[in-house]
Amino acid sequence: MTTAREVFEKQYVSRTRKSRQMYEEARHYLAGGVPGGARYRRPYPLYVKEAKGSKFWDVDGNEYIDILCGAGAAILGHSPASVMDTVRQQLDRGTIIQVTGEFVIELAKKITQHMAGMELIRFVSSGSEGVHIALRAARAYTGREKYAKFEGCYHGQLDNELVSGAVFAGPGDNPEPVLGCAGIPKSILNDTIILPWNNADASVALIRKHAKELAAVIIEPVGGIYLGGMPAERAFVEALRKVTEQEGIVLIFDEVITGFRLGLSGSYSILGVIPDLRVLGKVIGGGFPIGAYGGRKDIMEKVVTPPGPAEAKDIALRRQKIFSSGTFSGNPVSVAAGVATLRELEKPGFYERIDGYGERIRSGLRKMAMDIGLQIQVVGLRSLFSVHFSNHPVRNIRDILNSDRETAGAFYMGLVANGVYVPEHHVAFTCGAHNDADIGKILEVSEKVFREIKRHQA
Ligand SMILES: Cc1ncc(COP(=O)(O)O)c(C=O)c1O
Fold first, then answer.
1. Is the Cβ atom of 220 under 6 angstroms away from ligand 1?
2. C-alpha triplet 240, 247, 319: angle, nearest 5°
3. Whose Cα sits closest to atom 8 in ligand 1?
4. pLDDT-based confidence at 316, cuts 50/70/90?
């Protein structure tokens, strides 16, 4: 008997002949035929011709409503006119000048004005870099070497941070660190403490136990890539704020997804907690590569701001400073696009609209699954959502990985085979270019896919 996944895969294959041909060619030059692992999918990836607004078109001419939205970066949809106009102007004025321009100051100003506690910032080229350098800043500031992260949180693709993301081990309230992939030195595990997500008592106890060695505690205020838009509870984050303050540990919020997605103030709008440092990325680049880190002025001035002329001879002071600079840090095109994007987000009603679409999708999916007789859990808030097949609530990465991943995989395949694009098991987004018709179509396709899954379960 065929499975629902096989039915969807057959549909996918029958409408993506050119993608298959391109894959056959591409895989001779690109590992797996893709520039980054997340773009791969079974049985072969899609190849795209063009994207505009809420949609893109593959090389076979199929139209997709995009609910990946540049992994959250394309908050206005693809190539929004106002951002493209600004980018075009910047393209004629230089793309890699290596001397600070006006847009970079304006973007920094907007970020510091909107986000509580972002007193000083620095730009980098990606979210991964932002996390990595923020942790370096925390180490330099505290003189300690270890850091703690939460099981299920994703903090980018670099060695130190790729631990216990979509893998777990040990007791739920005292997780053991697990390397995220091959090629990462095991020695990294000696410097990494893994904490249980949304478990305040156990996390606080572990932080206190390791306090003297901990430079930083880092958390995604809403678990994104792996946790599917799962919010950290307010009391839990308040407990983290309190213990880190008492123990002199730098609290870092990784807001690469949530920054300017949950509103202009990021996670502050749901948690009301101000971290010591924050990491940003995605949305602030307006569709171009970017990352940023920043926060408390005393931390940034002590370890990042270069020594002034009077201080330059002070060797002890110079040794407190971190290295933080890259060829493309604050590149003129990304920051111009970022400023133009934030100007759109500042317009009244923007977030209400994308959050409203998110809520319509979440509640629509729940109702349809219930009517059809499928046991699903819809995770997410505001403009984020994900679907898990489980008969009990999913509260952490263990619940997610122990849910019915095979059926969830079939669901995501079904969406793509029917013109709604998101990678398997990936958090999905709504964006400013979505409209009522798109949301209607997303729900219509989801219902069709749910019914096919149910038919195969019977
Ligand atoms: C929370 C979080 N932190 C860091 C990163 C890494 O950002 P980048 O892919 O720009 O390196 C991501 C990427 O998805 C992310 O979701």
1. yes
2. 115
3. 127
4. confident
